[in-house]
């Protein structure tokens, strides 16, 4: 009679997360999980990453402005949009996460040259909107659209306030996009790590097949991605390049420890190490 290992497929989501973050030597329990349970874990970690990196900032921002309706009606300068032309009484600037929304309708077609400080900008002139990056004398424009191609009909502050539900739907859409992008990144890097780690697993007679090493590489990135998300939310206390280097090292260490914990050194011929 075949017996199911005591812990196989009985680990709760919180148990899987705890092992992934703190105990690579126990990854063998995670390797035994079914594909469905690994997918469930991916959904959990992707949600956590999206919440830490985007959700916290979004919730804090909406609370700080008192909601979008309050922002539009009470904080934003009076404006009108008519016949493809935006006219705002005063210059307006607002930080949204790591980006800045900037409006200056004194410029007909605004460019990054019209903005003095570095940063990521969504900037509106009287007839166009751009998104771009300025950094240490360099600049790159991601897009430049005529307002007439984006907006139909005329509106003002009051009219824009009726679109508030769409703003919240947009936040939800962005959160889902962040979730998916995190999942894709984890799975892709896991594949890269697996290509590197699989020969190590074979050399030390772990008995792990490609799919099992792939699972290890998924779980082995958990701590790295959580640290990166926290660092991003905290405003890059550690620079992005250094953080990437640190988290790559952490992932390699976790994956290596997980594989070596299963190594069967006694079966390796002398002199092959």
Structure description:
By secondary structure, the chain is of the alpha+beta class. It has ten helices and eight strands. The strands form two sheets. Strands 3-4-5-6-7 form a five-stranded mixed β-sheet. Helix 3 packs antiparallel against helix 7 and helix 7 packs across helix 8. The longest helix has 40 residues.
Q: How are the SSEs placed, and which strands pair?
A:
Elements: H1 13-22, H2 27-31, H3 35-65, H4 68-75, E1 79-82, E2 85-88, E3 92-96, E4 99-103, E5 119-124, E6 128-135, E7 138-146, H5 147-150, E8 155-156, H6 157-161, H7 164-203, H8 210-219, H9 222-233, H10 240-260
Parallel strand pairs: 4-5
Antiparallel strand pairs: 1-2, 1-8, 3-4, 5-6, 6-7
Could you write a compact summary of the structure shown?
The protein has 273 residues and is an alpha+beta fold. The protein contains ten helices and eight strands.
